[in-house]
Design goal:
Structural class: mainly alpha
Order of helices and strands: HHHHHHHHEEHHHHHHHEEHH
Shape: elongated
Number of strands: 4
Oligomer: single chain
Strand content: under 5%
Helix content: 55-70%
Length: 436
């Protein structure tokens, strides 16, 4: 490990300078020789490094999304050349080159911070051995050797013997308990971060070896941290535990606000977004409009969760636009006022007529025929006679009045025909035939 750390000795001076600057600030608050001053200096170094690595983290997310998008194509290549591993690898590399993706981009944050990690290890190891390094002079070295975190010196390791630990002013029990707890927390945070990625932010519609590889790393990384952690000084454990907690929180933020398409996290996010948009009638945040714009642009290529989101907006009378905004839909079925009643101009719901029985239909038909006949008789009696016109001749024959009489009898005839419409035609069978 010392050989590896010496390879990064060129960066030990900048790392030691940053730690000393933070130590001046925290030393004025907690005291220069306390573990809080030196421990918080290391934590602040981690935060500073991770802020500088945010652009690489964004690139890592984009690369991971691109790799997940290529999963169907990768699966086809694996099935087509399953008996030819060399041709399979060539086609994979060709696919990566055509799409501009790099499988190693997901490891960029770890690779980028590795020089700072080994430089910090070299600094703390020099403190343990009593050697000055970088900008840490004799006085700062003596102050750092006095600093303890929960009773364990910053430069102490889990495997250090009693003589080394006593030279740093501590006991073996304190050092091993503190380092064991920190190693467990470091491994647990790494496991939870990877598990959170696999269970919530992975497209579950595609099963590929890439997912199996990520699942394997979920168990391999914690074991690696546990094995190498017993050789790390307490200060390095503080550094690595802090960076794991930062990664976990950063990933939780990304999963909550920008999940992977097709994942469980996207289903939960779109469900929250549907409630938010339907409540306010619009997308209020820029990030929401960006996601809605991407969903609209997919068209028929939307996944199940995205189609459910669009349908939910349509049911609420809203429509997503190509620019990511949400407007009121013109195809809304009915507009209601605040009290729930249909507003003016709204189309009322059509009522289905109630089905009547056969006896009700027959009685209604008979009543309708009688009322029509009575109405015709009233019209005939109440029709006024104009005096200006010539009246009928007094010698009118009965034949001239026959048409009028037949017209008056017509409603009655129609009444009988309607009343008998429910009976059987032809000769009726007697109900009680006589017996001979």
């Amino acid at each position: 490990m010392d050989t590896i750390a010496s390879l990064f000795s060129f960066i030990t001076t900048p790392v030691s300078w940053v730690i000393v600057q933070f130590h001046k600030v925290y030393g004025a608050i907690f005291g220069p020789d306390t573990g809080w001053a030196w421990g918080l200096s290391i934590v602040s170094l981690v935060i500073l490094i991770r802020i500088c690595l945010i652009p690489l983290f964004v690139k890592q997310i984009k690369s991971t999304r691109a790799m997940q998008t290529l999963q169907p194509e990768m699966k086809k290549i694996q099935e087509r050349y399953k008996n030819d591993k060399q041709r399979q690898s060539e086609e994979m590399m060709k696919l990566y080159k055509e799409t501009g993706t790099n499988p190693l981009s997901s490891c960029l944050p770890i690779l980028a911070q590795s020089p700072f990690f080994f430089a910090l290890y070299h600094v703390l190891n020099s403190i343990a051995t009593g050697d000055t390094i970088g900008v840490i002079n004799e006085s700062l070295l003596a102050s750092a050797r006095k600093a303890h975190i929960f009773g364990a010196p910053l430069a102490a390791k889990f495997k250090d013997g009693s003589a080394t630990v006593q030279a740093l002013g501590a006991t073996v029990t304190d050092v091993r308990v503190v380092t064991a707890v920190m190693i467990i927390l470091m491994s647990a945070s790494q496991f939870y971060t990877q598990r959170q990625l696999m269970t919530k932010n992975v497209d579950t519609t595609v099963k590929t070896p890439f997912m199996q590889q990520q699942k394997m790393l979920m168990y391999v990384f914690p074991v690696m941290f546990a094995v190498f952690g017993i050789n790390f000084p307490v200060g390095v454990l503080v550094y690595w535990l802090t960076t794991n907690v930062w990664t976990m929180g950063q990933q939780m933020y990304v999963i909550h606000n920008n999940p992977t398409p097709g994942s469980k996290a996207q289903a939960a996010y779109l469900e929250r977004l549907t409630k938010h948009v339907t409540t306010h009638g619009k997308a209020r945040k820029r990030s929401e409009r960006t996601i809605i714009k991407a969903i609209v642009a997919k068209g028929r290529d939307r996944n199940e969760f995205e189609r459910k989101f669009i349908n939910g907006l349509n049911k609420a009378g809203l429509a997503a636009q190509a620019d990511g905004t949400v407007i009121q839909s013109e195809s809304q079925a009915a507009v209601q006022t605040e009290d729930g009643s249909p507003a003016s101009g709204a189309t009322p719901k059509r009522q289905q007529p109630k089905r009547q029985s056969k006896s009700q239909r027959q009685s209604g038909a008979a009543a309708g025929g009688a009322s029509s006949g009575a109405k015709a008789a009233d019209d005939a009696q109440s029709s006024p006679t104009s005096l200006s016109k010539s009246e009928e001749p007094e010698d009118a024959t009965p034949e001239d009045a026959k048409p009028a009489a037949s017209a008056k009898k017509q409603p009655g005839a129609g009444n009988r025909s309607k009343a008998q419409s429910g009976q059987r035609k032809g000769p009726q069978r007697p109900k009680s035939p006589s017996k001979k």
